[in-house]
Amino acid sequence: MRYLATIALLLLVSVSVTFAGNVRGLIKDADSKEPLIGANVVLLGTTLGSTTDEDGFFLIQGVSRGDYKLEVSYLGYQQYQETITVGAGDVSLDIDLTAVSLVGSAINIVSSRARERETPVAFTDVSKQQLENELGSRDIPLVLNTTPSVYATGEGGGAGDARVNVRGFDQRNFAIMINGVPVNDMENGWVYWSNWDGVGDATSSIQMQRGLSAVNLATPSIGGTMNVLTDPTAQNSGGKFKQEFGYDGFLKTTLLLNTGMIDDKYAFSGAIVRKLGDGLMQGTWTDAWAYYFGASYNINKNNRLELYALGAPQRHGQNLFAQNIGVYSREYARSLDGYDVAAFDVFDERGRRFNQNYGPVDPSYAGKQSNGPDDIFDRHEQGFINERENFYHKPQVNLNWFTNLSEQFSLYSILYYSGGQGGGTGTYGSVSRDANNPSIRDWDATIARNRANATGSVGLLRNSRNNQWTIGAISKATYKFNSNLQTTFGIDWRTAEIEHYREVRDLLGGEYFDPSTRGLPVSDFWSAEDMQRGLGDRIDYDFTNTVDWLGAFAQGEYNAGALSAYGMAGWSTIKYNYTNNFFANDEGDKIKAESDQIGGYQIKGGLGYKLSPQLHAYGNVGYVSKVPIFDNVISDRDGTKAADPQNEKFQSYEGGLNFRAMEGRMNLKANVYYTSWKDRSNSIGITNPDGSEGIVFITGMNATHQGFEFEAAYQPIGLFRIDAAASLGNWKLTDDVRGFYKDYSAGQVQNDTVSYYVKDLKVGDAPQTQLAVSGTLMPIKGLRIQGTLRHYRDHYAEWDPFSRTSSDDRTQSWKAPDYSVVDLHASYDLPLNLSSVRPQLFVHVFNALDETYIQDALDNSQFNSFDQDHDADDAEIFLGLPRYINFGVTFNF
What we know:
This protein is mostly beta strands. The protein has a domain at 19-100: Immunoglobulin-like.
């Protein structure tokens, strides 16, 4: 009831406030009189603004009475400003913008942004204003939790350790792009958000296209495509200084500066961010920087260059080990159906903020830590050691060229580079633990053992390094046959090299580490003198992977009157190479492996029709054959190759309606989707007839992801707006799987069989039913108050379908309890006369009611299960973070 009361209170307050005015208008090109789509319209000194729709119209509602300076900006056009007076009625404007360049931003075009009531796909836009109002320095994906079928969590609470799930697919099965460039890992498809920590401060918008999406790169996007666009170079000089504070020593400083247009040709923008904090969970401190730079050069009216560079060098403590529910709270565990309190005899209660990866050490221990032989430093905290720490810097640089070759023919290209240096920490060898369960590392005992041992350290801290570089190019050529029909052809080329190795981080009191005395791997390329490994020396494994990708696509678009349509076909090929720098083959050389070229493709298309000025209907279909990830082709431990790696197949159908009425004050979206995932495969190691090791694939694991999605926005009066999003999913495995293969490990052929019993079991890892409702109140000029309620149901714990090998084990994975969370946001533009400086105060209260809830769960945990029967006592979980506050002040100038 208290959640309903929160929303009801906002409604009650809203109807008691005096009605204010609206600002509406039409933005056109001064010469052609064509409407300009996506122009930014803001009331300076406030948080109020809008963008023009496909007809060039905009509407700003809930504007308090008074005088304002209205600003209109659109890339390639002179900025427009006008002073307006708002009363109780509407202010109507008709504005013509004068072009200074006939080219737009290559980023918007190459990243394939969907357009309202035109592009026939389901999507949601998150504006810069929404990011400012709701993100609150969290990881970027968390702002998407108010969109249908999107579920993002911070997992263990480490900065940048978020994960996101769309329509039941994890990050490996949807595309994430920053400024038009795919950033999914080239080996396994994952995205590490710590690499982009701080990029939210430079983000201008995010578009979440669900399903196969309208993106025309050859990159397959099954669950959807997340387009993150950073701020383009601003046409006016100015900037922003932002200071944020929070719980547990959180402190973040942001500075953004813009030169504005110089001689109508050049513009530069830059940002720098510094973030420090101790973390809400034990040991999840953060020490991070972020930077952003943008430059543009209008060569002439038909050619434009843009340069973008961004990165986020950071270190942070991690909380990677989920726990049995009783470890965090016995009271909460006792309240859950299916939790056997006998588990309390096995698992100790440690508290809601417990982190198993963080433990005390005698402050007198002065051992150094290392990230490579040339980077020696002191640990982060004198009295503690993080077993798990992440450190990384992944810069990305884009050079974009936009050219009009003729009135019909345009070319848009991106050349990009992405580096990467860093990794994560852990233990290696014999490292002591205390006597508790869950236990933490006993650093003092380990240090004492290492100091006393005559042959060096018996256990240590290690770094698992991932150093990489990627270069690539994306180019799209568009030819307009007429005002209704255009076609686009493009290429997507990338090559990457990734180094994987472990190195000594902290000897924990020892003089050196000799793996040969511990029965641990020793490199075939070490001499006898190399056996004693010191800080920064490589251990355990050392290999280099390369990934070569080439894709091409063709797309046609038709838009005439009420009808819009598109069709796209894409092809891609990938090749993997592997070099083991640690072990030698029989000839004494490095072990190498090279895959064949593996091809994949996708075909998709959609149709939209405006049934009336208010109602738009659309549908789309598609088919994807997706190439396997690196680990399913080559084993990166020993170079074993799969003889016949198999592609996974996806088939998708989607249809929806968009409705807009009451002069834009009411907007509704609804759609249904159906996605079939076929031939998800599992690799099994075998022995070949010649005695060599091999890999076979067991295919046939099929699943369906289907559901209904709904979005609504309604502004009954100028001072109040309500937004809602809902999704109902039905994601499940459809068939049992039985596979056959031959194995020669016994010296003769064995015909082996493997079966997986998964029919009708639900897909886990995200709630299949979601609801989000937000109420926003703007009672006086400059004040904005928002409350958001999110509710989740039908959250089946994550589980491995290839673990269900018994026909007697057909129980659904454990279903986590339903839960609701309330977040509050407020901002106020201070009515101070500070020349051109506009101060704003803001505050965010996340989990305002301090609910205890389970946000991540793994069924029948190998480490934290009580009796392995898919009950609450068998899940390992992360609780949602307790209530915390982010607040601060922004100075715009």
